[in-house]
Amino acid sequence: MLLLRKHILLTLTVCCSLAVAKAQHTFNSNAGPRLHALQDSMIRLTESIQAAKENTDRFAVNASLIKTLVTALKIPGSYSFAFDSLKYISTVKSPDNSFRIFSWALPTNSGSYRFFGTIQMATKDGSLKLFPLIDGTAEFKDDNEVTSPKKWFGSRYYEIVPVVNSGKQTYYALLGWKGNNNKTSKKVIEVLSFNQGEPVFGKAVFQDSKNSSVKNRIVFEYSKLNSMTLRLDKKVGMIVFDHLAPLSPEMADHFEFYASDSSFDAYKPLGGRLKLVENVEVNNDPDTNDEFYIDPKNKQIPAQKKF
User: Fold this and answer.
1) Region 90-116: what's the mean pLDDT?
2) Distance in angstroms (rounded) separating the CA atoms of residues 198 and 194
């Protein structure tokens, strides 16, 4: 209970810290060395988190990591700094350069994960605007909920796919790794849109068949002993993914026995929605994102990859 209270206090502190951080992101030639130094500090902190044996140690170091990130983002010119040397923190920028997302996972002794992140906006007046992402996965009664950054379906994102909605405001499909537990992993196609400048997670755009209900997000679950492809294939213009199936019919709905059956499905942008296309022919070139992730605490589990 004490640890849970500390986690809640940490989340509130992160929220307040990120919400009030404001600066100018015009290029400052003097900012480079300081940002590099802070990035080096963040690298050391993330390595300490991975090496920590206990949850209390991980969360304590994570608090320092958050403070260091906030310090870096307050520096003028930070939006133009790539932070591309961070191994355990994903930094992905939208192709239209309107925002970027920092996200990372904190492994726990139980085999589950806590996620942290923030959206950094590129504002017209040059001010830095941040939306802290508060992992509310435990509060989700339904994966289909539409939520705000204060109740985020925590994930570590590795790709952003903009979808132009027939002249309406663009929304973004976020491809992410969610982890799960000691038996299964999850990946997510999340939808991010903006309503009067405020981020909204989840949107009724996923159409699996003509008569099926439209979904707000897609969650894949599969055996932790396997990997799963989920990526944008620019050649076919679709979000392509492994078709997951149980190893045998009697294992249906027991996702620790789900893996790729060597076929591929995809979501294709059409009429403002993402419509399911089955049995897609693709050249499945190796992609490091396909391996996102086998359990980071267990380096001995092999990825059984299929091409």
Assistant:
1) 96
2) 5
Sign, Cα dihedral of 75, 79, 81, 85:
positive
- Tokens 């709905």 correspond to what residue? 253
CB 228 within 8 A of CB 289: no
Q: Which of 192, 204, 202, 55 is nearest to 131 (CA)?
A: 192
- pLDDT tens-digit readout, 16-56: 344 434 444 444 557 889 999 999 999 999 999 999 999 99
pTM of the prediction? 0.85
Write the pLDDT tens digit of every residue in 167-215. 778 999 999 999 999 999 999 999 999 999 999 999 999 999 877 899 9
Question: What is the three-state SS of the chain?
Answer: CHHHHHHHHHHHHHHHHHHHCCCECCCCCCHHHHHHHHHHHHHHHHHHHHHCCCHHHHHHHHHHHHHHHHHHHCCCCHHHCCCCCCCCCEEEECCCCCEEEEEEEEECCCCCEEEEEEEEEECCCCEEEEEEEEECHHHCCCCCCCECHHHECCCEEEEEEEEEECCEEEEEEEEEECCCCCCEEEEEEEEEEEECCEEEECCCCEECCCCCCCECCEEEEEECCECCCEEEECCCCEEEEEEEEECCHHHCCCHHHEEEEEEEEEEEEECCEEEEECCCCCCCCCCHHHHCCCCCCCCCCCCECCC
Cβ–Cβ < 8 Å for 105, 156: yes
